[in-house]
Amino acid sequence: MTSPPPAAACTSKAPRTAVPGRAGTDLVIAPLRPALAALGRLDRLGRTTGPVLRRGGRAAFLLAPGAAEPVPDLLGWLGWGPELRLPIDAVTAHPGEPRVPEPRTADWLRVGSERPALDLRSPDLLCLLDALADACARERLGLPPARW
């Protein structure tokens, strides 16, 4: 298996709609049901996710600054290319975006530390993306969530 593409060589394929996040925090956003399935799978595997916020019918995984830009290329490297049209969005933080509410007032699926846990050096980022992509594909095909 080859190494994932280096962060410097990865570029975002298309601009995404901004969703409020912590100042300087990138986001990976997915539909709520597949996100919950992915969280369950990652819990069973003992992997970390960092903080996760519920926004209506979607879940926002908070990442370290700079981690969202290569997400499309990392998904492709994992075998989940753009031709599959999975509903996973990567949002890069921009100065001036509103901050996420405090943990006691927000609708958190996972409350994390003040700093997001996942960055480009974290193998858990690849696990998160793979679990999310698998859960989105399974939902689209009408299959039950993965049990492993």
Provide an overview of this structure.
The protein has three helices and five strands. By secondary structure, it is of the alpha+beta class. It has a five-stranded antiparallel beta sheet. β2 and β3 (58-63) form a beta hairpin. α1 (32-45) crosses α3 (123-141). The protein is globular and about 40 Å long.
Amino-to-carboxy terminus distance: 22 Å
Main sheet makeup? 5 strands, antiparallel
> Which series of helices and strands comes N to C?
EHEEHEEH
Shape: globular
Looking at how many chains there are and whether they match, the oligomeric state comes to single chain
Any low-confidence stretches, pLDDT <50, length ≥5?
7-22
Average predicted confidence as pLDDT: 80
Q: Given the helix and strand composition, which structural class is it?
A: alpha+beta
Helices, by number, come to 3
Q: How much helicity do the residues have? A: 25-40%
| Percentage of residues in strands | 5-15%
Write down how many β-strands occur, each being a DSSP E stretch of 2 or more residues: 5
Strand order of the largest sheet: 4-1-3-2-5
Query: What's the Cα radius of gyration?
Result: 14 Å
Indicate the topology.
Elements: E1 26-31, H1 32-45, E2 52-55, E3 58-63, H2 71-77, E4 89-91, E5 108-110, H3 123-141
Antiparallel strand pairs: 1-3, 1-4, 2-3, 2-5
Helix pairs in contact: 1-3
Provide key terms for this protein.
single chain, 148 residues, alpha+beta, five-stranded antiparallel β-sheet, 3 helices
